[in-house]
Amino acid sequence: MVPLSEHPAFLLAQLGFHVGARFADALEPLGISPRHNGMLRLLQAYDGQTQQQLGEALHIHRNVMVGLVDDLEKRGLVERRRHPSDRRAYAVHLLPAGLDLLRRIEPIARGLDDTVTGGLDPAERATLLKLLGKLTTDAGLTPGVHPGLTQGTGTEE
Predict the structure, then answer these.
(1) What is the helix (H) or strand (E) element at residue 28, kind and residue range?
(2) What's the longest Cα–Cα distance across the chain?
(3) How many C-beta neighbours within 10 Å does residue 91 have?
(4) C-alpha span between 127 and 133 (Å, rounded)
(5) What are the chain's domains?
(6) pLDDT 10s digits, 9-65
(7) What is 30-69 written as a DSSP string?
(8) What per-residue string of b and e applies to 38-57 under the rule 16 or more CB within 10 Å gives b?
């Protein structure tokens, strides 16, 4: 029987769990979870779109989108405004407090990247990034969207 340490899927899962837990711990003092960070980053890229447009483009279930936006809105990080061309819809906008929070998170994320890949030289790190990108594409994952963001109600921590 092949040891778990020789199964790429196990090693990726082990490392993913470890990194995810460390990132969650690093975000805890800021009062947010990785899911909040993911949604804020998506809103930064797609500011002013409707919840439905965001959900469809990012393959995020409507209920998840609503729950996350509700939570971020309560925290004063985003707001819903009437959509300029569709009176039935609301556009979601990142507020200055949300953008400020993203700026505070960026060095945390970079530091985690550096810690995780600290044993690699720059060429190895570039190769790892390229290979991981290929694996995520081959798996049919949406670029830049964590699978955990697309499931659940959006309010779990």
Answers:
(1) none
(2) 62
(3) 19
(4) 10
(5) 4-150 (1.10.10.10)
(6) 999 999 999 999 999 999 999 999 998 998 899 889 889 988 888 888 777 788 888
(7) GT--HHHHHHHHHHHHSTT-BHHHHHHHHT--HHHHHHHH
(8) bbbbbbeeeeebbbebbbee
